[in-house]
Amino acid sequence: MNQSVPSKSRTALIRNWIVGAGIIVLFIWSLSSLQFDGIQEYGVQVMKSIWEGFTHPDWDYVYMPEGEDLLRGLLETLVISILGTFISAFLCIPFAFWASNNMSRLGIVSGSGKFVLTVIRVFPEIIMAILFIVAVGPGAFAGVLALGVHSIGMLAKLYSETIEAVDNGPREALIASGASKLQVLRFAVLPQVIPQFISYALYRFEINIRSATVLGLVGAGGIGTPLIFALQTRNWSRVGIILLGIVVLVIIIDLISGWLRRRII
Amino acid sequence: MTPAPTPEAAASGAPTPPPSKKPAPTLDSKGPQRYKMLATWLLFIVVLFVCFVGVDADFLALFSEGARENMGRILGEMLRPDWSYASHIWKPMVETVQIAIAGTIIGAVLAVPVALLCAVNIMPKKIVSIPARMVLNLVRTVPDLLFAAIFVAVFGIGAFAGMLALVFFSFGLVAKLTYEAIEAIDPGPLEAMTASGANKIQLIVFGVIPQALPYFFSYVLYTFEVNVRAAAVLGFVGAGGIGLHLDQQLNSLRYDRASTIILLTLVIVLLIDYASTYLRRKLL
After folding, report:
1. Distance from CA of B125 to the nearest CA of A (A)
2. What domains appear along chain B, each with residue ranges and CATH number?
3. Distance (Å, rounded) from C-alpha B265 to C-alpha B260?
4. Of A76, A134, B48, B266, which has the fewest Cβ atoms less than 10 A away?
5. Distance, in angstroms, between B137 CA and closest chain A CA?
6. Mean pLDDT across B240-260
């Protein structure tokens, strides 16, 4: 696929055409079997009312003294993602050491660790949330647990890559001077990886705040719950203000977290 | 060519950084620094404590009689998947992949012009690139499931809403990754072409596209991986695909069937991940 070579050979050209045609066929196949019905009849009307709602957000909803308002919902979302990130940032450390290939001599150890992490990573957090709801009941705590467990997959992978990249000098020096395994971990490995760990945890926090906004769609707390109610009742001005709140919250968190990450590394 | 952000970094979700090489600050170096560190940790612990109280986090509840019973029952049923149900879910599974394909391709095509507008080496006018980036950032703050929930409310339940959600999501992701890749291309050919009087279109077609195309394809493949996973849960908000069936089975407490769906989805996702990772490695 290297197109920067000036004299393209004939076979490469033909291959590119075949790939292109294949993509188009795939695309048409995908579109043709998806059903597009029931869009035209009331689409314009719905669009109009949505536009109406989004341009006139329900400002009264931002703060209501008796509770269940936007600010409280956003706060709960924030709390869910803070706790979820915190839990996974600690739970994933043993997984990270398990999966990194320079911490054990046997390839099978890190290989199996990596596989477990992949499975955790592709297991959707929404399903995890539903399972935890069954266990501890609907609410923010189920959301915290779902995020905490799901985040292990990605966080432990990033952590293990950091561990694999550590400078071996200090480790060898400590081992040579007769340090125990634990001492090597404490004085040679940890000081090198902690800043990177914190930075990755903050990055995951940015992702979790987005996830936490949708956990409420299945009943795991946060701003998603009022949002799904507003969507179901076609209360577009309320949907507008909630979306606005989510966007503002996410942007603020991104800014703070980005600033912190730049300071740490 | 200057290395653009590697897809591996993007795949693992890493923002940009190579592991920091500078020596880590030691805990017990200087007095004031130590107090600052201590204060930070204290603040952090207080915030955490308030948070735990705020969500009524009761870890004992996780190990209480009822929870153990419920969890045990579910896990027990999930460990015995109902394989006879597998034949019912191939069609929605195919639909899931179709949603992901259609969403990715449309989103990626829409992303190209916006990525060109965002890249400062193609569009030096700040008045264009900064608003374009702001739009991108706005689009990327909204999670795909939220898009799906909104589109379901607008267009009704079905795969179309899901596809549209993925179009928006892929658009944001591909456009951002691509404009960063475009900004990292080798400026030499561009300067030579500008010097010999090429216009903007010629510059893009003969200078930018040959350099950025492999990266673009690689990012599209990566987005496709993300989209397959997203499409698998879109059904929870009514946006088509396998998630709809999973939701039904979970609601009717058929955990053995739910487990079949989850396992098959995992297999499909892993297969697509491996195929796509292989292709991406060949591309770059």
Report:
1. 25
2. 87-283 (1.10.3720.10)
3. 8
4. B48
5. 9
6. 88
